[in-house]
Predict the structure.
Amino acid sequence: MLHAISWSVFLMAVVCMALAYWLVISMVYYSRELKVLVSGKSPNSKDAKQSSNSNFFVGDGGPSEIRAGGGGGDDRMSDHSKLDVDQGNNTGLFPVAYRLVDELREVITEYTDKKSAREELLYAIQRVLNKNEYKDLKQTAFKVAINNMIEGECLSKASMNLSGEELNFIWKK
């Protein structure tokens, strides 16, 4: 039975199956972009803007665009991020969240290097979280991610397992 199939027929079947596979994957994951492409709308249309906002971890300039804010103020934030903050969209809070994560890592490292008591570390984390620039993150999904980061850093650097009560405590004023 296999003697009747030539290599050219086999390779053609493999290529056709691979194309069908990628067509299905493209339709599932890039349906919005394909609709805009097929409809002939300009890339500045509302649908195109929504699809471009779906990748908010990395901007057009790559990860460095998000970290460009560094320790400075919001004056370095891209126009795209300012627009999202103005619209009440949480994606504009990513630069703020990255600054908070960097600052928390520094604080945790500093207090674990000094071999400080558990309570001192928790109060230091609480002081960072209660800064005015990070208040907007309290009622967003970033809180869960930041709690996971704090818990992981404390566990890895200080062998300190934080309870849910302690994590709730550090977010209170």
Q: What stands out?
A: Residues 81 and 91 are 7 Å apart (CA to CA). The chain has two domains: 1-54, 61-173.
